[in-house]
TrEMBL record:
It comes from the Eukaryota. InterPro entries: Endo/exonu/phosph_ase_sf, Swc5/CFDP1/2. Signal peptide: none annotated. SUPFAM superfamilies: DNase I-like (SSF56219). This is Endonuclease/exonuclease/phosphatase domain-containing protein.
């Protein structure tokens, strides 16, 4: 999943590296601001069942994987300094869209939600693995509440990382 792509349009393109072939499903806007995308390796890209471009900050693709269906989201939250309304609009669209996904499908979210969930679980033991970094902020609380309300978990908090991989 890619965020802040700054592409000016929506589309699908083929990308070839030295040994691999990929299909890129993208979602942008006229101003070359924001933008999200999802890379899928061939031949798995042939299993894409549907694509939904919600807005320039949110999209998903649906894949058939043997006996199951997986919906993969790419999400990009407004940065610090953006209006509260803009942030609320993204979260509302996210909530509305997730609620349309059947419970039988697996959901994977690749995102940049501009929040810090912190290193402490503080009551979110069922969704936070205890290996975050630093202090939780307001956006981090929102991420944890969203995660908990949908029965998800924050996978990156379940693995201990070296300090230089946590700080950018």
């Amino acid at each position: 999943c890619l965020q802040e792509t700054r592409w000016k349009s929506n589309g699908v393109c083929h990308i070839n590296s030295e040994n691999e072939k990929y299909k890129l499903f993208s979602n942008g806007q006229k101003k070359a601001k924001n933008g999200v995308g999802i890379f899928v390796k061939e031949p798995l890209a042939q299993e894409v069942l549907d694509i939904k471009r919600i807005n320039s900050r949110l999209m998903w693709i649906k894949l058939r994987l043997k006996n199951q269906t997986m919906t993969i989201f790419s999400a990009y939250a407004p940065q610090t300094g953006e209006s509260k309304g803009m942030k609320n609009d993204l979260w509302a669209a996210f909530f509305d869209t997730i609620s349309t996904i059947p419970k039988s499908e697996t959901i994977l979210i690749g995102d940049d939600l501009y929040g810090h969930v912190g290193e402490k679980t503080d009551g979110f033991d069922n969704v936070h693995g205890g290996f975050g970094y630093g202090e939780r902020n307001k956006e981090g609380n929102r991420i944890l509440e969203f995660t908990e309300s949908h029965g998800f978990c924050l996978l990156n908090t379940y693995f201990r990382e070296r300090l230089e991989h946590l700080i950018r």
